[in-house]
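Please review this one:
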Amino acid sequence: MQDEVGKTYEFRNAYGFALEPAYMRVAINSVFAPWDQSLCEGDHVAFIPSETGK
């Protein structure tokens, strides 16, 4: 649990997101990926917030 809290804090500080990682997805090179996937030079990363319908 403490490790997850540390990761969330680091994530928010590094990128300025208000949402916790559990409420977002990550895509690497236009494909959804796990949060712990390694990156290569030139990779394109997108953080995608969850959405709800009305």
